[in-house]
Design goal:
Elements lengths: L2 H6 L2 H9 L5 H19 L2 E4 L16 E5 L26 H8 L3 E6 L11 E2 L3 E2 L15 H8 L5 E6 L5 H7 L2 E4 L17 E6 L2 H11 L17 H5 L7 E4 L11 H16 L3 E4 L6 H13 L2 H12 L10 H11 L3 H21 L5 E5 L20 H10 L6 H6 L3 E8 L5 E7 L5 H15 L12
């Protein structure tokens, strides 16, 4: 099988070829490894690649499908460095619950993808790995923190890669690289380390809506010790992809909630999406939840930092290294310093702000079926824009830039727990993708899948291919 033939198929399409015995699983894995060998020197998306032929579970829905996991997500034998020199060469000793479910899908894990230090940053740049680059334009980032997985999927190395999202870390990279990236409802999929506030959500990045839906069907469900869970839907998510959404009431956000105006390409994309949704028969009007955005982002910084000292101590104990300037990024040290000064009052005040935001978004969905926003204030940032190795910027300024100038729209949904997806409806005239975020009521991934499939039927985004790829 030629690499361009392999890359044209999504995960479900490759499994159809396997079932018809037109290819074998080892051939698919060879294609993925060949693609990685060809593209990783330029894009730098791998933190580790399996030295041995991967094994997989037979007679499972995705038996033998080549797959990449995000480093630090508890996959036995794969990198557990947390993207940090502090954890260099560490490997996970056991699987977390999500990885156990990933393996039960039958995938063949061929390696792990890069992430920034402790998943803190909106780009995938670190002293340990260097900068991961965007297949559309290599001087730009694929976003973060699931940037390695996004770059690999966008470049055609694998059709699906695992990601995690604590403030936009699936949706941001999907926005930057032209992928479909869903953050499920809080509790839909298991997470071993949800943090005090439960912001982290685990799922996959994919080129097609149906692949995301199929994997959500297999990864969803409560788990022992889990703090959050949601009931299983009546129908499979994959079945929802084929269903018409009906006529929906959609609230549209065309402006950043903070001072920074949308980049022209992002603003034009929202206008285009509004026209498309109206053409498809939906009722669309400008409307957004009544949220105290400034208070929200001040409190988000508390949540962003609160668990870091413990994570640093854990990795340091595992590696036997001391935390300091030789093992941690300058900005990470500033995050950790801020976290150590947090008081109980600050944590309680942050939770009060978050609860008000949850109520505001729930009230919004009493009148609307969906909320549609930009996925980012700007397109994929240039390499170095949010480089955590810079020591010349204070924490507050860095965090404000990251939220105000880039990721203003995504953290709210980690706070509230609502399902949200970055959907690659538009592509900028400058050659970079532009994502649109679609948000639904709690537990209603189904409507996101239906509308996303409806939009894809019009624009055919999976047929767009980046220049640095095997397509």
């Amino acid at each position: 099988m030629r690499l361009d033939e392999y890359a044209r198929h999504d995960a479900i399409g490759l499994m159809e070829l396997l079932r018809r015995r037109e290819v074998c699983a080892r051939e698919l894995q060879r294609c993925a490894l060949d693609a990685a060998a060809r593209l990783n020197p330029k894009l730098n998306f791998l933190s580790g690649c399996s030295d041995e032929q991967p094994s997989w579970l037979e007679d499972a829905p995705f038996s033998g499908l080549p797959f990449l996991v995000k480093e630090g997500n508890e996959c036995a034998g794969h990198p557990a460095t947390m993207g940090s020199r502090l954890g260099a060469n560490l490997k996970a000793k056991q699987d977390g619950e999500l990885m156990r479910r990933v393996k039960r899908t039958g995938v063949a894990i061929i390696g792990a993808t890069t992430a920034p230090e402790f998943g803190l940053y909106p780009v995938t740049e670190s002293a340990l790995h260097g900068a991961t680059r965007n297949p559309w334009q290599v001087h730009h980032s694929p976003g973060g923190s699931s940037g390695g997985g996004a770059a690999a999927v966008a470049a055609g190395v694998v059709p699906v890669a695992q990601g995690s999202d604590g403030g936009g870390s699936i949706r941001g990279p999907a926005h930057c690289t032209g992928l479909f990236g869903l953050k499920p409802t809080r509790g839909r999929t298991p997470t071993s380390s949800p943090g005090l506030f439960g912001f982290t959500h685990l799922h996959v990045l994919s080129r097609t809506v149906r692949d995301s839906a199929a994997f959500l069907d297999l990864l969803q469900g409560p788990h022992a010790g889990g703090r959050f869970w949601v009931p299983r839907p009546e129908r499979s998510h994959l079945a929802e992809v084929e269903r018409e959404p009906g006529r929906l009431r959609i609230g549209l956000c065309r402006a950043s909630p903070l001072e920074t105006p949308l980049a022209p390409e992002c603003g034009a994309a929202m206008d285009q999406v509004a026209r498309l949704l109206k053409t498809l028969g939906h009722d669309v009007e400008d409307a957004s939840p009544q949220v105290d955005w400034h208070g929200l982002f001040d409190s988000f910084l508390v949540a962003w930092t609160h668990a870091l000292p413990r994570a640093i101590a854990t990795i340091g104990a595992m590696s036997g290294r001391a935390a300091g300037p030789d093992t941690l990024e300058p900005m990470t040290l500033k995050f950790a310093e801020r976290a150590r000064t947090l008081t109980i009052d600050e944590l309680l005040q942050a939770e009060a702000v978050f609860q008000a935001a949850r109520l505001a978004v729930d009230h919004f969905f009493e009148n609307y079926d969906l909320w549609v926003t930009p996925a980012g204030v700007q397109q994929a940032p240039a390499i170095g824009t949010f480089d955590p190795s810079r020591g010349d910027e204070d924490l507050q300024t860095y965090a404000a830039r990251a939220l105000r100038d880039y990721a203003a729209f995504t953290p709210l949904l980690n706070i509230t727990g609502h399902p949200a997806a970055s959907v690659p409806v538009c592509h900028g005239s400058n050659g970079l993708p532009v994502g649109t975020q679609i948000v639904a009521p709690l537990g209603d991934e189904a409507t996101i899948f239906r509308v996303s499939a409806q939009l894809d039927a019009v624009v055919r985004w999976s047929q767009r291919t980046p220049p640095h790829s095997v397509f």
